[in-house]
Amino acid sequence: MRWFGYCRLLLAASLLWAAPSFPAQSVAPVIHLSVDLHEAPRRIFHARLVLPARPGPMALLYPEWIPGEHAPDGPVGELVGLRFTAGGKTIPWRRDDVNMYMFHVEVPEGATSVEAAYDYLSPALGEGFSAGPSADSSIAVLEWNLVVLYPAGLSSDSLMYQASLRMPQGWKFASALTPVAQAEDHVDFAPVSLTTLVDSPVLAGEHFRSVVLAPDVRPPHRINIAADNAAALEIPADQLAGYSRLIREEG
User: Per the confidence metrics, is the pTM higher than 0.90?
Assistant: First the structure.
């Protein structure tokens, strides 16, 4: 298997209107989303979300309408182990009676944030765009809509997320997101809107190669390749020349 990155996507996130649970302020608060891919070879993505909150009811949504898929097929059935806490204490949650993509919690008095922890189980077989397989023993394609929850009643452009990612030792990655801090197996990205986050997937893998195309053209262009083995990273010179020619002609 070999994955190339990326095509840009348009966001068509589904929003249901409910009373916003964010504290009132002129600047949108930043939601922190941490994803751990250490068990991606077992097709398990661990996620942790920290949302600013105020006491009272809060409604959160899992993306239902996925960019570029034109159907309400967000893989909510693969979201497991959901747990909410506030101030270090577990708080109960319930699924909406009508909308299976909506979750309700009651933020306790004195709480200023709510933390959600959950896993996404990437299927081993099947089709369906982002709902299909997205990881194997040496490659993971992280589409953020698979692991994000967002407050109901607010537009995707107004919601700000700061994402971070942990990967197995030795893995490399590529994304349109801007890294602001990076270690061997960890990277923090600059805050972006939910619209931009979902439009900026991550390609990660043990066997990884990034190739510069049309080096005389600015801004820089690259093709990023992740594969099941090092040999599969090879790409013929005439094919690379064709990609470079395409970029020059487009310019």
Answer: no
